[in-house]
Amino acid sequence: MRIAVVLYDFVEPIEIGILGTLSMAKRVDPTLTYFTVSENGGMVELQNGLRVETDYSFNNAPPSDVVMVTGGPGWKNQVKNERILSFLQSRRQHTPCIASVCTGAMILAAAGLLDGKRATTKVPVIEPEVCPLQTLEENHPSVHTMHALVVDEGEVVTGGGVSLCVDLTLYLLERFLGETVADETARIMEYGAARSANRKRLATHIASSSSS
Fold this sequence. Notes:
By secondary structure, the protein is α/β, with parallel strands linked by helices. It is about 40% helix and about 20% strand.
């Protein structure tokens, strides 16, 4: 299994917890591989100044089984960025699953990947910020929004806000590599208690999103 993680300027640093989770998962299943990708490759500056060197650009990124789009304040620029939208649209043709965490869902919606589908994104904010789930609903009426941890629509999976990047990653590991890999990854991360607490809620949301 190979996972591509999309980064861009002003992603929230906590969302690179995806990479930390994948790093731990690789200890459990060495067949797992992952890489980072950004518009031009090389350095991106995350929110509050943290810099990350990405592995590939949109032009030279290799194929992957999953594409994961991160979130953060930079989403407001990215929904108008034709290069990232085109990248995601082209990946849809030959990638089994495209996923987002937090406001990364805004970018998937702008690319048309959420039309007619259920989806979630970040909910809690600090005033005067506007709830992203509300923004998603208002800007994309064809998307059926849900307040959920993870919503799985098969070829597209969306996760809720910020720290749920870990739960989303574990969910995708379980879906593609099996429950044992996800559980063992959570155990060695000392995330077992949080995973256990969230699983009942997560199961409800997955069941809700697959009904009707």
